[in-house]
Amino acid sequence: MNDKATARRSGTDQAAILLLTLGEQEAAEILKHMSARDVQRVGTAMAALDGVTREEVSAVLQQFSTTVETHTSLGVGVDDYLRKVMTAALGEDRAASVIERILGGRSSRGLEAMKWMDPRAVAEMMRNEHPQIVAIVLAYLDPDQGAAVLAQLPEMARADILMRIATLDGIQPNALNELDEMMEKQFAGTTTKASTFGGPKVAANIINNLDSSQEAAIMGRINQIDDILGAKIQDLIFTFADLRQVDDRGMQELLRQVPGDQLLLALKAADPELKDKIFANMSQRAAEMLRDDLEAKGPVRISEVETAQKEILAVAKRLADAGTIALGGKGGETYV
Questions:
Q1: Rounded Cα distance, 219 and 204, in Å
Q2: Is 250 exposed, middle or buried (0-12, 13-18, 19+ CB in 10 A)?
Q3: Contacts of 4 (CB under 8 A, 6+ apart)
Q4: Which CATH fold would you assign to the domain 105-236?
Q5: Residues 43-56: pLDDT tens digits?
Q6: 180 near 212, Cβ under 8 Å?
Q7: For the structural domain made of 3-70, what CATH number should be given?
């Protein structure tokens, strides 16, 4: 792909460009196979696209063509091919859940429908449910939506719910069926095999999407109740400062995926060591311009900085799940 043509475009923007290029009917067919959250993200990007050049469209189409040519199912078992494509597209964690539903024949439409709902509406539905039911629902949702729902629940209940998520170890079919039956007035579903979602990593992913004040309060409460479980979760929480552990090649790839204005905002509260690492992995001219922009930028809300940092962390995790970069250490795999 032409780097200059796509430097300003995120992966979501590039997907939006591709869908708009394909046309209404073809785009609709593709969207049918995407998750609710991904449809929302791509749809928002499609609505916001502006100033797309012919060169950018050509670059996106070329990248798509190359990907199709290198991912063919000829001579490969369908299941293996599906696993490889899903893992490359969604990352290992999210792909595992999708593959389980496809290959296992599972169809929990009640839970799936909740992915389309506003977090406040989901929280309202769950407000009077048993914490274990709430934990199952939040573990099933994408981490960012789960975090948004958790933030709407009573503060005193949040730590308990996250601890239940962290200790989930498989959900039996009858339990998942009962949850769907509970919502049968609006949703219906069946299941054929046990689910394997939940665990400390799912809890950590949800915490990663909370703001810092909520994260500190919840982790403090969890550590008071079960310091061993708290340590397990804490070890899997990846913070913006932990990007210092990414190697130079990985950092360069990450920077190619992050919009300049987002990086500028995120660095307003970054520690000097991380700033130096980022500057070292940019061209001299780009690093100088970024330094100048940081000095010239006036005060910004800490909430805006935290949002930018979490968005960059989400990109880093997506690249790590796809095997493009290695996070290493806290929140990631250890490499030898």
A1: 10
A2: buried
A3: none
A4: Annexin V; domain 1 (1.10.220)
A5: 777 777 777 777 77
A6: no
A7: 1.10.220
CA distances from 205 to 142, 155, 167, 265, 334 (A): 9, 18, 14, 22, 18
- Non-local CB neighbours of 111 within 8 Å, separated by 6+ positions: 137, 140, 176, 179, 180, 187, 189
Closest CA to 62 of 105, 8, 18, 100: 18
The one-character DSSP state at 44 is H
Ranges of CATH 1.10.220.30 domains, the chain: 105-236, 240-321
140 vs 294, which has greater pLDDT? 294
Return the minimum-mean-pLDDT range out of 75-84, 216-225, 267-276, 306-315: 75-84
pLDDT confidence of residue 279: 93
- Does the domain at 240-321 match CATH 3.40.50.300? Answer given as no
Say which residue the tokens 């490499």 belong to. Answer: 335
Q: What is the DSSP letter of 107?
A: B
